[in-house]
Design goal:
The protein has helices at residues 2-24, 32-114, 122-144, 149-161, 169-192, 198-206, 214-270, 275-300, 307-324, 334-382, 391-435, 446-481, 488-492, 494-581, 583-586, 614-632, 651-664; strands spanning 589-592, 598-602, 605-608, 640-643, 670-673. Helix 4 (149-161) crosses helix 11 and helix 7 (214-270) packs antiparallel against helix 8. A three-stranded antiparallel β-sheet has the order 1-2-3. A two-stranded parallel ribbon has the order 4-5. With 681 residues, the protein is mainly alpha-helical. Helix 17 links the parallel strand 4 (640-643) and strand 5 (670-673). It has four domains: 28-109 and 476-558, Helix Hairpins (Orthogonal Bundle); 121-167 and 402-435; 192-369, no CATH class; 582-679, P-loop containing nucleotide triphosphate hydrolases (Rossmann fold).
């Protein structure tokens, strides 16, 4: 659109202005092109310095090589000195290890003496501890093999309840069968009670005074047949009379209609030659056409004498009087209504018959319910059922008592078995400990003895194992360091050699730092050369771009000015028109510049739109939208949708805007939404 083209032009002009400003800055001291010239000179000087430093890097490599040779010689002497110096330390470690091994073997001998030269093994101690633990677990399990406190309470209650006996499974099954028979009988009575539905009630109301007798049924059926025969005869008579009348006159009337139509057509043609003659001819033809049509239809619908029709009406009255007594007559089709009535009567007779059968079956089922209920009552009395306790509850109580009896018997058997096994294991454990020399009294029990045995077994095994390992370590150190040979002179010069090596390492570290810094600087030479070549290309490119942009800027600036004159002026004009209409509401005189920026004058000072109140900004926004609509739809009046645009206005200013909207609505459609009654139009 034109507006989008204008926006593109504005954005393009703005970007070009920034670029040209950037390029034109070359005229000043800090201009872009001058800065690029300075950068080029700086890069060229840096490249020269790096070329000189590249030549000096070879001397640094040579000096570092000499330092590496001196360090290698010194480190070899230092390694020999360290070995000789380290042997003294190793001899001390070997002596300590031998002393430790001797102490460990003495501790192991003391433990062996405690058990007469046969110290306990870890496996033996673990086996006795496992057997003792198993005995304790079995004893504890035996104590737990009993009914819970809640089950013991239940057991006592049911023992008292069934002290005279428990109802047997066969008895409970028989009572269950009787209950099922009662339930089935009740369900059967309930299901049969569903026969009386809405349809049955409707028929009962219709035949409240009784069903029609057989004589009445035969008579009304005959009347329905007579009615259908009379109606058929009447229709045949009508068809024969219509056919005779139309057959005699149809051809003549059609000829007369054709002639009259021809006269009307001729009169219409003559009307253009002679209006009077034409009008007479048309009138005569129209009269003849109307008369012919009247005779044609009169002959086709002639009145005739129909005795069959008279008879059907008399029968219809008789049928109506009969059916009205049952409240089912509508008068539309008597024969069909008689058929429906007879079917309903037959259906109701069947319902009455099924009702009698139902009553007999209900009485039989109710007798069965009463008999079975009496048997169940006697059963409950025999076993002392409590108030409110039914057969199901009594059966559940009996089943629960059976379960508790079995649980108690099984718990007693398991307790006896587990207690006996625990006692056997404990006796075997005590015998084994006595054999090891343990005695038991008030201060030591079996658990304490087993703990002491396990501790001694672990200590003995640990001492023997650690002593052997320590002795092996000492022998390995003696072989590895060849402690029988030594060189005392070189060990004496150890400190001097170490200081010399440290100084050489410091010197080579410093030299490595110098070389690394020099290499880093020389490595940047290629980057500097590439940067200089790139900068030369960019400099030439910038100069050419500056020249082109200056020409384009001039062209776009002229085009932009023309576009503003074409599009901005009409919109500004319409905005000022609407702003003038709402000046009372705004309270200010509004203006708009070429960039659509809105301003106003207050106390002789020009201010921007942001100093307006929220209500004033809403009115300005509406004026601008209306101006845009007038410009976009110059030749149209489109409808406008407004969604509560005046929510920030007070009641006085709202009245002014209502007048404006009513004026606008005179020549266009406005759809206005609001959420408050004070802003209704």
């Amino acid at each position: 659109s034109d507006k989008e083209q204008s926006n593109v032009g504005e954005r393009t002009l703005t970007k070009l202005t920034e670029k040209i400003r950037e390029l034109k800055a070359g005229k000043g001291r800090n201009g872009l092109l001058d800065k690029m010239k300075d950068d080029k000179k700086k890069l060229a000087d840096e490249i020269k310095d790096l070329s000189r430093e590249e030549k000096n890097l070879g001397e640094l490599y040579k000096a570092r090589k000499e330092l590496e040779e001196n360090i290698a010689e010194s480190e070899k002497l230092l390694e020999i000195a360290e070995i000789e110096k380290g042997k003294e330390h190793v001899r001390k470690i070997v002596s300590e290890k031998k002393e430790k091994a001797a102490t460990l073997r003495k501790d192991a001998g003391d433990i062996a003496a405690k058990y007469n030269g046969e110290p306990p093994t870890k496996e033996e101690a673990d086996a006795l501890a496992g057997k003792h633990e198993k005995a304790l677990n079995l004893a504890r399990a035996g104590e737990r093999e009993k009914l819970s406190e809640e089950e013991e309470t239940e057991y006592a209650y049911y023992s008292e309840k069934f002290r005279s006996g428990i109802p047997q499974r066969e008895e409970r099954a028989e009572i269950k069968r009787l209950e099922m028979e009662i339930e089935l009988a009740k369900n059967a009575v309930k299901e049969r009670g569903g026969i009386k539905d809405a349809r049955a009630e409707e028929l009962a109301r219709r035949f409240a005074n009784g069903l029609p007798t057989e004589e009445e049924t035969e008579r009304i059926s005959g009347k329905a047949k007579e009615y259908k025969d009379a109606k058929a005869a009447s229709e045949n008579y009508k068809n024969s009379v219509y056919k005779s009348v139309n057959g005699a006159n149809k051809t003549l009337f059609l000829v007369l209609i054709a002639v009259a139509a021809a006269v009307v057509a001729t009169g219409a043609g003559l009307f253009f030659l002679n209006a009077a003659v034409g009008a007479v001819a048309v009138a005569a033809g129209a009269i003849g056409l109307a008369v012919s049509l009247a005779f044609l239809f009169k002959g086709g619908a002639a009145v005739f004498d129909d005795k069959a029709n008279i008879k059907s009406e008399e029968i219809k009255r008789e049928i109506g009087e009969f059916l009205a007594g049952y409240g089912v007559y509508s008068g539309e089709d008597p024969a069909a209504e008689v058929g429906i009535f007879l079917n309903d009567a037959k259906e109701y007779a069947g319902i009455l018959e099924r009702t009698c059968e139902k009553r007999a079956k209900d009485e039989a089922d109710e007798r069965k319910i009463a008999e079975n209920g009496e048997k169940i009552r006697r059963f409950l009395e025999r076993y002392g059922a409590e108030e409110g306790e039914d057969v199901s509850a009594l059966s559940e109580a009996a089943a629960r008592y059976d379960a508790l009896l079995r649980a108690k018997k099984n718990a007693d058997a398991r307790r006896a078995e587990e207690t006996g096994e625990a006692k056997r294991l404990e006796n075997e454990t005590v015998a084994a400990l006595l054999k090891k020399g343990f005695t038991f009294g008030s201060e030591k029990n079996v658990g304490d003895a087993i703990a002491e045995l396990k501790d001694d077994a672990e200590k003995y095994a640990s001492a023997i194992s650690e002593a052997a390992a320590t002795e092996e370590e000492a022998e390995k150190l003696e072989r590895e360091y060849d402690l029988g040979k030594t060189d005392g002179q070189i060990a004496t010069d150890y400190d001097g050699i170490r200081e010399k090596c440290a100084g050489l390492r410091k010197d080579i570290a410093q030299k490595d730092k110098e070389i690394e810094d020099a290499e880093d600087r020389v490595a940047r030479k290629a980057d500097k050369e590439a940067a200089l070549a790139s900068l030369n290309e960019k400099y030439l490119e910038k100069e050419e771009k500056k020249r082109i942009m200056e020409k384009v800027y001039d062209l776009i600036e002229r085009a932009s000015e023309k576009m503003r004159e074409k599009y901005v002026a009409p919109i500004r004009e319409r905005f000022l028109y609407y702003a003038e209409k709402t000046e009372k509401t705004l309270g200010e005189k509004m203006t708009m510049d070429k960039d659509f920026s809105v301003s106003f004058e207050r106390n002789g000072e020009k201010k921007k739109e942001k100093y307006l109140s929220a209500g004033q900004r809403a009115v300005c926004s509406l004026c601008l939208r209306l101006a845009l609509i007038d410009k976009i739809y110059e030749d149209e009046k489109p409808f406008i949708i407004m969604d509560d645009p005046f929510s920030a206005l007070d009641e006085n200013h709202m009245e002014d805007m209502k007048k404006l909207l009513r004026t606008l609505a005179e020549d266009r459609q406005i759809v206005y939404f609001t959420c408050h009654k004070s802003r209704r139009i």
